[in-house]
Amino acid sequence: MPTISMFFGILISIFYGDDEQHHTPHVHARYQGKSVSIAIEDGSLLAGNIPHRQLRMVQVWIDIHREELMADWELACAGEEPFRIAPLQ
User: Fold this and answer.
1) Could you point out which of 16, 32, 62, 76 has its C-alpha 20 to 30 Å from the C-alpha of 82?
2) Which InterPro entries does the annotation name (predicted)?
């Protein structure tokens, strides 16, 4: 699972090559040993737990980069490594 972005101690990753188990386009965020899965389409929390402030930062980042994330999702579903995306600044 490659890291596609990093900001404020948060690592954002996306799986690739395993589209049968991952139907909803989403990213994984890790922060201080905790992790979440967040839907790309609407930023909703799918699973996991990280502090609220970091969750909101990831949701804002998703909102800003939604088109790039969907392009990365398509690459991931095709078994190709996704591109890196600019961090939240």
Assistant:
1) 32
2) DUF4160 (IPR025427)
Reported residue count of the chain is: 89
> Which residues, 6+ apart, have CB-to-CB distance to 62 below 8 Å?
27, 38, 40, 43, 69
Residue by residue, DSSP assigns 7-53 as ETTEEEE---S-TTT--S-EEEEEETTEEEEEETTT--EEEE---HH
The pLDDT, as a whole number, for residue 18 is 56
Across all residues in the chain, what is the average pLDDT? 92
Q: By percentage, how much of the chain surpasses pLDDT 70?
A: 93
